[in-house]
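Running co-folding for S-adenosylmethionine.
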Amino acid sequence: MSLPVGVLVKNGSIPWSVTGVRDCWLGGSHHNAADRQIAERILLGAPYLAHVVRIYRAFLDRVVRYLVGAGVRQFLDLGSGLPVAGNVHEVAQGLSPECRVVYVDIDPRTVAEGRSLLAESRDVVMLCADLSQPEQVLDATSRCGLLDLGAPVAVLAIEVLHYVSDANNPVESLAAYMDAVCPGSYLSVAHSDHDGTLMAGLANFRGLCRAPLTFRSLTRITGFFDRLDLVEPGIVPVPLWRPELNESLSTDPEGFSTYCGLGRKL
Ligand SMILES: C[S@@+](CC[C@H](N)C(=O)[O-])C[C@H]1O[C@@H](n2cnc3c(N)ncnc32)[C@H](O)[C@@H]1O
């Protein structure tokens, strides 16, 4: 199992989590005082990080909108974080109530909190699992009976693969998910490049949470889409992926070293 990014680190006596810190930046209400403290501390060294997290979330919104528009009604969201602040089921079911979503996260606190938030929700489940163990994730997904792998599924890995080291072979893991789903299914990845300002901020973050981060070059990010048909505009800096689908946050796309794409299984 890869080292969990959501690993709880003591700050004083209160545990904080990456999810809680991100929730602060996304303007949510699911975080504690320690999360807030850490979120502020990180912004001292990397003031743009909160903006980056919002840009990622706006991409998630756009890609889910696109997928629902393309007829997809099933989502497997790997490394989902908390199912709040405009996460997948909120967007998808808001557009089409019959959408079904399986969230997967490695962090037990995130999953426990997520499950309690989803208690009243229909057709959404949250699994505690490591995305680097596709057999286990697919087995648990099949046991919960929510997704029909005979119909198209969108597999999402947004802002999570830099927590998965090369030793855990994320290319192979994603290929296993895509082998399990039927033609007409999709894979979306958003991943930080190995240079640029984002890296400096995340390196600071790494110092705080001790989780190893792996940034990958554009060529390696492109490798996640092997054997898939890339949807236009291909693999581009996150702000440039179909910005017309929502109100994109203004940013300099050239200086934004995080790439995203959407591929369709033929
Ligand atoms: C940046 S956060 C949330 C990203 C979310 N996809 C989004 O777009 O908002 C990354 C999440 O991935 C989870 N995570 C990290 N490594 C993971 C792994 N190997 N398997 C499953 N989840 C993982 C963390 O616990 C964290 O909640």
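Result summary
The chain is about 40% helix and 20% strand.
The pocket of S-adenosylmethionine is lined by residues 2, 4-6, 18-19, 22, 56-57, 60, 78-81, 104-107, 110, 130-132, 158-160, 163-164 (CB under 6 Å).
Job closed.
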